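Lab meeting, action items carried over

1. Structure of the two-component assembly. Owner: GW. Status: complete.
Input record:
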Amino acid sequence: MQQLAIGSKYPEPSKKFRKKAALLSVIAMGLGQIYNRQYVKGFLMLAFYVYGIFTAVTSLPHALWALVTLGETETHLQKVGRIYKQVMGDHSIFLMVESLITVFIMLVLIWLYIAGIKDAYRTGKLREEGVRPNTFKQTLSFVAAYRFPHIVLAVPILGVVFFTVMPIIFMILVAFTDFTRETMPPAHLINWEGLQAFKELLRTKAWSHTFYSVTLWTFIWAFFATITGYFGGFAAALLVQSKGIRFKSFWRTAFILPFAIPMFVSTLIMRNIFNGQFGPVNQYLGMLGIAKAPWLSDPLWAKITLVLVNFWLSFPVSMLMIIGILSTIPKDMYEAADIDGASGSQKTRLITFPMVMYSMAPLIIMQFVANINNFNIVYLLTNGKPLNGDFQFAGHTDILITWLFKLSMEQGKYNYASVIGIFIFIVLSVFAIWNVRRTKAFKEEDAS
Amino acid sequence: MRPGNQARTTIRLSFSYIALILLTAFCAYPALWVLMSSFRTGDALFSDTILPASYTLSHYTELFAKHPFGVWYMNTLKIAVSSMILGTILTLLTGYAFSVFRFTGRKNLMSILLVLGLFPGFMSMIAIYILLNQMNLLNTHTAVVIVYAAGAPLYFLFAKSYFDTIPRSLVEAARIDGAGHMPIFFRIVLPLSTPLIVYTALMTFTGAFTDFIFAKLVLRSPDKKTLAVGLFDMIGDRFSNEFTMFAAGCVLAAVPVTILFILMQRFLVDGLTAGADKG
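Predicted assembly:
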C-alpha cells in the first residue's frame, strides 16, 4: 500500500512519528496508538493498562509477599473477651496458587505492553512513509486473515496453561517446601526448605534404596511391557494378514476385544481372574492337576502377571498400527522377491520387518515412555503389592508413578512426591523431545 | 502348482488357524468369563464349574436396586458426551492451526504441548483441586468436563498428521476463490476428515467414560459419581462377596464402549496410523 512518489523529490524520512509514538506507549500502553490515530485500539489498550496498574498496585505486592513467605500468621487461639476463639491464619497453599495466577496475569499484561510499544513504533514508521494507519475495522480484518492460528490456538492454550502448566509449576514449587500431611494448611504454615526434600529422598538410606529399586523396576517393566506388546502385535498382524487366511475381519475384531473393553473394567476383571485362591486360572490348573501359582502374591510372579496382563491389553493397538503400515508396503517388492526365489520367512525378515520397524520406531519409543507412566494397570491390577518391608510405602510391583501417587494421596508426603514427579518429568521430556524431533510429522513439511 | 508346495501351504494354513483360534480364546476369555459370572447364581468369585450351573438375571436388577446405577450411568454419559464435543473441537482446531499455518514459535509450542501431554494428569491434581475449589466447582460435573476437554488438545498430533495429508492445493484453490479461514475449515477440510473426527471423538469419549482417578477426587457425593468411580468403590473392600453383581456392572459399563470400538474399527486403523511416520 506504500505510495511511491515517482519522480518527485522524496524528503528524507524523519523519525519523529515512530519515536514519539513509541515513547508515548512506554509512558502508558495505548497512548502511542491514540497518537497514531488508532483510537479504538488505543483506548482498548489503555483500558488494559489501567487494569494492569490496578492489579499491580492491589494484588501484586500481596502475591509476591505470599510467594516469598508462604504466609506469616499461623492459625491460633486468641482471647476474645472471656473465651478463646480460633483465628484462621494464612493458608499457604491457597496463597501459593492465587499468587501464581496473579503473576501469570501480570506476565501476560507485560507482554501486551511490550507488544504495544513495538506496534506504536511500527505504525509510526509507516506514517512517516506516508501510509495511513489501519482503522480498527481494518485491524480486525487483518487479525482475522493473518493471525488466524493465534486466535484458534488461544482457547486450547489458555486451557493448557490453567490446567496443565500452572499445576506443574505448583508441583515443582512444592518440591522445595515442607508440605506434608503433618504441615497441612490451614492448621499449619508451610515453609520453603530449598533442596531438603531432594537430599532426604536421594541420600537417606531407607528412602534412596526405595527410590533406586523402584526406578530400576520401572525401566525393566517399561522395557518388557513395550517389547511384548509390540512383537505380539507384529506376530498377530502377520498372522491375520498372511496369504490364504479367510475371515480376516473376524479375527481382527476378536483381537481388538481387549483394547475395546474399558481398561478399568478389564483390569479389575483380570485381578479376579488371577486371584490366587478363588480365581478361575488357578482353578483350571487345579483341574489339570497342576499346582496353583501365586499369581499376585509372590513378588516375581506378580511382576510376570503384570507383564502378561499388559501384553493382553496392549498388543491389539500395535496390531492395528502394523496392519495399517503393512498395507502401505509396495506389492512389487514382494513380487521382485518372489522372482528372486525368496522364501516366506526371508520376505518377512528382509522386507516386512525393516519396513515396519522404520515406520514404528518413534511409536515404540512413545510406548516405552507411556509404559514408564502406566499408572492404571499397576494401580488397578496389583496396587503395587505384594508389600516390601524394605521399601518406604512401596510394594514390589510399584513403579515410580504409583509410588508417587501413594506418597501424595495416601501418605501425604507431598514434597517427596513432587521430587519424584520432577524426576519422572525430566526423564520423559528427554525421551519425548528427542523422539518427537525425529518424526516426520514434526519436521517442517514444506521445507523442501 | 507342484503337489509339494500345496501340501506345505495346507500345513502352514492349519498352523495359522490353530494359532488364530488360540489367540482368539486368549483375547475373548476374560470378557466371556465376566459375562458368565454376571449370570451365575450366588455371589461368590469362586465357581466349581467352568460354565455356570444355573442362570439368573437377579444381579442386574440388584445393581439398580442396591446402588444408584442408573444415575451413575447417566452421569457418565453426560460427562463423556460433553467432554467429547468440547475436546474434539479443541483438538481439531489445534491440529489444524499447526498443520496449515506457519507462525513464529510454532515448533516450540508443538514440542511443549507434546511433552506436557506425557505428563500424567493426576501429578498436578492437588493444584487443580485447589483451582476448582476457588472456582466453586468441586463435586460438579462441569469441573470434570472442563478438565477433560482442556487436556484433550495435548493429543493434537494425530489431528495434525491427518490434516497434513490433505492436499494444500485444495485449500489454496478455495482461498483464491475468496473463501475465508472458517468456511475453508468447515466446508472443505472437515468433510474430508471423517476418520480423524471419529477417531478423536472416540478417544475423548472413552477417555472421559473410563477415567476414574480424577473423577474419584472431584466427585464425592453418590448422586454425582460416574460408573468407573461407582464400580471401583463397589469392589473396594467387599468384592469377594458381591462379585457377581460387580460382574454385571462391568458388563453394563463395558458393552457400549466395546460395541462402539468394534463398529469404528476402520477409523481406528486410519487414526492410529495417521501418527506413524510413513517413510
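2. GW to write a short summary for the group page. Key points so far: Chain B touches chain A through 103 residues (CB under 8 Å). The domain at 61-274 of chain B is CATH 1.10.3720.10 (MetI-like fold).
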